[in-house]
């Protein structure tokens, strides 16, 4: 096993004893919480470093740009060296194998999927549709499936937003006939969906749909010295549309769940997935979506994937999901109002009690770099909560320079694989041909033949 994980654990911090996470239990998920400015992002970086050293690939969204520093060695800092010495570790600046991704293709490789792969539930969430509008999207997907048949290497179904827009136009023009087969389709509802598509395009969401689509296996590679590659998604622009950000990451989790084989419990995870600003995933989510999230989190651990939610307060995460997050790091919370005090009390109650620690009081007293921690023990039960210092990060704190980012991109193993968009023969072309033939008086093709 890679250096730093010979005993099957990774060191996250130190209380009166080393506070380590057991790698074979890292797929039991986790939670990193705390108020703004208390050190959550640095803790995320430390965990990513330790997983990478142990040979575990990582995926993390980088909202402020700070995580890109993983690609460059840290500076010699006396405060870090002193903290490391107190923990019994040798502090050495280090860098890690990193691949940059960017939905918009500006600061990393583009990530794309097809409209078909996204599916009607997540697409409706991304478009912020009501139930009636979502019903039209479901009809559109079913119609496309019935009419275009199975996709092959030449003929694709719904690939990009151009395909979906053309399909909606076709359904609106033929609503009477289609309504007999699938249910009523009102032109006004179709128009409302198309307007939401336009909003998404104006926000840059069209970049997400197309080919070549992402191969999930590209997130699960190791680099030099057997270190896990840290896949960093630049999300500063993406966060301008929080719904797009949250839906995209949920799609990614769903793809991992659907495509990866069952492996049970391994010596270490195949991938660790950090979901920053996790509250965006759950805010105003309909029950169907919450059920899907709960199912994915519950079952994905058997695929060898650990999911770590990063947010301000445990209350941001629904109870059914929270109950599945075994490894916990809690930074300071403020308690200025009755609502704040309730949040602190609730956060304290999520830990296994320690008779030597007043958890509720300590949460409000923690300094920067300090946290309450509880990791799963060998038998799978949470350890008693402890007050700990988080180990100092080895890589650079803060964003890399544009020159450093270009250098990382130049040596990326995926250079050239995703950078050019391909426009295949898909629903747009098939429907255009169908409408042209109808205008010329030719009989339409049989269902399933485009």
In short:
By secondary structure, this protein is of the alpha/beta class. It has helices spanning 40-53, 78-86, 115-127, 131-148, 161-173, 175-182, 187-202, 242-259, 279-282, 287-300, 319-322, 338-349, 359-363, 402-410, 427-439; strands at residues 9-14, 18-22, 30-33, 58-62, 98-101, 230-234, 271-276, 305-311, 327-330, 370-374, 386-390.
Write a structural description.
- By secondary structure, the protein is an alpha/beta fold.
- The protein has 2 domains: 9-111 and 214-410, P-loop containing nucleotide triphosphate hydrolases (Rossmann fold), CATH 3.40.50; 115-209, no CATH class.
- Helix content is 38%, strand content 12%.
- The protein has 15 helices and 11 strands.
- It has helices spanning 40-53, 78-86, 115-127, 131-148, 161-173, 175-182, 187-202, 242-259, 279-282, 287-300, 319-322, 338-349, 359-363, 402-410, 427-439, and strands at 9-14, 18-22, 30-33, 58-62, 98-101, 230-234, 271-276, 305-311, 327-330, 370-374, 386-390.
- Helix 8 (242-259) crosses helix 10.
- The model has no long low-confidence stretch (mean pLDDT 91).
Helix content: 25-40%
Number-wise, the strands total 11
Task: Please report the number of helical segments.
Answer: 15
Rg over C-alpha atoms, rounded to the nearest angstrom = 24 Å
């Amino acid at each position: 096993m890679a250096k730093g994980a010979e005993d099957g654990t990774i060191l996250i911090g130190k209380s009166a004893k080393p506070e380590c996470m057991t790698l074979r239990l890292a797929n039991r998920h986790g939670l990193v919480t705390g108020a703004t400015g208390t050190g959550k992002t640095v803790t995320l970086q430390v965990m990513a470093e330790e997983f990478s050293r142990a040979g575990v690939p990582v995926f993390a969204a980088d909202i402020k740009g700070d995580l890109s520093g993983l690609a460059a060695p840290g500076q010699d800092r006396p405060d870090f060296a002193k903290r490391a010495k107190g923990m019994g570790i040798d502090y050495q600046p280090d860098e890690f194998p990193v691949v940059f991704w960017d939905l918009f293709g500006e600061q990393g490789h583009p990530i794309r999927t097809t409209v078909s792969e996204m599916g009607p539930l997540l697409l409706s969430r991304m478009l912020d549709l009501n139930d009636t509008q979502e019903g039209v999207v479901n009809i559109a997907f079913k119609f496309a499936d019935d009419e275009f048949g199975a996709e092959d290497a030449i003929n694709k179904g719904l690939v990009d937003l151009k395909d979906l827009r053309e399909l909606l136009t076709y359904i609106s023009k033929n609503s009477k006939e289609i309504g007999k087969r699938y249910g009523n389709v009102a032109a006004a509802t179709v128009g409302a969906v198309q307007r939401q598509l336009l909003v998404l395009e104006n926000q840059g969401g069209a970049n997400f749909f197309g080919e070549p689509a992402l191969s999930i296996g590209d997130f699960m590679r190791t680099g030099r010295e057997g270190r896990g590659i840290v896949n960093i998604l630049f999300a500063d622009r993406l966060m301008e549309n929080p719904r797009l950000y949250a839906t995209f990451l949920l799609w990614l989790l769903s793809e991992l769940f659907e495509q990866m084989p069952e492996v049970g419990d391994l010596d270490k995870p195949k991938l660790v997935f950090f979901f920053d600003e996790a509250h965006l995933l759950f805010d105003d989510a309909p029950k169907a979506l919450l059920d899907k999230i709960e199912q994915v989190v519950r079952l994905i651990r058997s695929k060898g994937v650990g999911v770590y939610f990063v947010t301000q307060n445990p209350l941001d995460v629904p109870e059914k999901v929270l109950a599945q997050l075994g490894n916990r790091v809690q930074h300071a919370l403020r308690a200025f109002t009755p609502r704040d005090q309730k949040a602190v009390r609730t956060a304290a109650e999520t830990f296994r009690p320690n008779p030597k620690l007043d958890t509720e009081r300590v949460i409000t007293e923690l300094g920067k770099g300090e946290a309450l921690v509880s990791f799963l023990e060998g038998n799978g039960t949470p350890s008693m909560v402890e007050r700990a210092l988080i180990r100092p990060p080895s890589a650079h704190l803060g964003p890399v320079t544009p020159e450093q980012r270009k250098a990382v991109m130049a040596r990326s193993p995926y250079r050239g694989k995703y950078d050019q968009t391909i426009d295949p023969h898909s629903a747009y072309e098939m429907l255009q041909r169908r409408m042209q033939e109808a205008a010329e008086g030719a009989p339409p093709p049989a269902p399933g033949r485009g």
